[in-house]
Amino acid sequence: MLFAPISAQQGLILVDGTGGTPEAFRSITAAVNSSAPGDTIYIRGLEMSGVPFGYADIVHPAFWSTQDAETFPIHLKPGMTLKPLDSTPVYVWSAATGGPPEALFVADPGSSGVPTHLVDLHLAGGIAGVKITGAAGSSHDVLLEDLRFSWHTIGLDVQADDASFVELTLRDCRFVDHKRDPVGYDPVLRNPSVGIRLHALETNGNPGQIHATVDNLKTAGSFLSAELAPSPFPVGPNDLSATFPATTRLIEVYAAGSTGEHPNPLDPEYTEPIAEVLLDLNGGVLDGKAGSSSGWDLGLYAALGNNAPGDYRSGFRINLAGTQIHGFRVAGIHGCTNTGARGEITLSGQAAVTGTGLQGAPVADQLWSSGVLLFGLDGYLGFRAADSTFQDN
User: Fold this and answer.
1) What span, in angstroms and rounded, lies between the C-alpha atoms of 370 and 319?
2) CA-to-CA dists, residue 334 to 142, 376, 381, angstroms
3) What is the pLDDT of residues 344-390, one digit of tens each?
4) Residue 315 to residues 163, 199, 339, Cα–Cα distance (Å)
5) Cβ-count burial 122-143 (b if 16+ within 10 Å, e if not)
6) Where are the alpha helices (DSSP H) in the chain?
7) Fewest Cβ atoms nearer than 10 Å: which of 22, 31, 221, 382?
């Protein structure tokens, strides 16, 4: 059953699963489907006896009379904003025990003059928390602010392909593994494999590009090894793949293309675009929580596809300013280039890579447990560091 939104005079589109506002929508799905690009939707958090409950695909019996089930993924129109109504936290999760949804939220392409904006939401379950897929010349502008990602196979999954462009900003987001005492109808937990995945690819001779800015990203929790799900690298070989054919990666950057970065014959000052990821990490504490039975394997992993020799056909450029990378099991940063590809990683502003591999005693001549590990195969890989610290790796 759907209710009409609160009147325009009140200036709100409201979701209220508590029943406290009868004219409000009973699910986020219904509110989003009934709203227009650029609209702002306010969500009232759900609690019972101080215990938070989620807007979910299976509704707890306590809310049967006031809440409708969500249909995941929820497709966000361009420029739409979702945010809590007040200080009560808003949880969105998948409780379905069958096949998990591909994502809780999918940001649809298009432009409204303002970014698609998710604010201060706690997300749990599903293959991805948020998914952005660029294709066929589409464009995205997405701002994720103060989100908590927990128990997704991939927290944030971003792909740009076929001449698409993704502009992405993350601000004050967290990757957490907090669990609450079971009360029934909890989220179905999916073992994390990758926190943020940024892939730029090329189809039909049209490369995709991603420009991402990540401000003050943090991790919180214990991240027990038994509750993480290592996955294969997107491309090989590298210095780790023989020993670690599968790893967990907090941030994964990957680009692969076929169009060469040669000057345009009609305008020599202009070079053809290639499949590329540009990532700026500003501040933040990426703590891998490495221990004898816990921890992420890699903090930042960046790799490029194997291309034909000649012009560069894929690339990444990553800047870390003041970012603290600490306590990963295998490597704090692992950068890899390949034939016909170029990558650059720059650290500055008191960035630090510390405490890699502290879960075990060092072994002579082993490559893993390195703070920074670089691998080049007939391509270009630049690494620069100024005003940065490398210690206890």
Assistant:
1) 19
2) 27, 11, 11
3) 999 999 999 999 988 876 666 677 889 999 998 888 999 999 999 99
4) 15, 11, 11
5) bbbbbbbbbbbbbbeebebbbb
6) 28-34
7) 22
Other C-beta atoms within 10 Å of 110: how many? 14
What is d(CA 128, CA 198) in angstroms, rounded to the nearest whole number? 13
CB 158 within 8 A of CB 199: yes
Pairing of strands 128-134, 231-232: unpaired
Spatial separation of the C-alpha atoms in residues 56 and 93, rounded to whole Å: 5
The pTM of this model reads 0.94
User: Is 377 in contact with 337 (CB distance < 8 Å)?
Assistant: yes
Contact 301, 337 (CB under 8 A): no
Sheet with 128-134, strands from edge to edge, namely 74-76, 105-107, 128-134, 154-160, 194-200, 249-255, 298-304, 331-336, 370-375
End-to-end CA distance of the chain: 57
- 78 — pLDDT class (breaks 50, 70, 90): very high
Strand duo 139-145 + 116-119: pairing: parallel
The token duo for 196 is 């943020």
Q: Give the residue among 79, 200, 103 at the shortest CA–CA distance from 152.
A: 103
Count Cβ atoms within 10 A of the Cβ of residue 93 and give its class: 0-12 exposed, 13-18 middle, 19 or more buried.
Answer: buried
Distance of CA 252 to the CA centre of its chain: 9
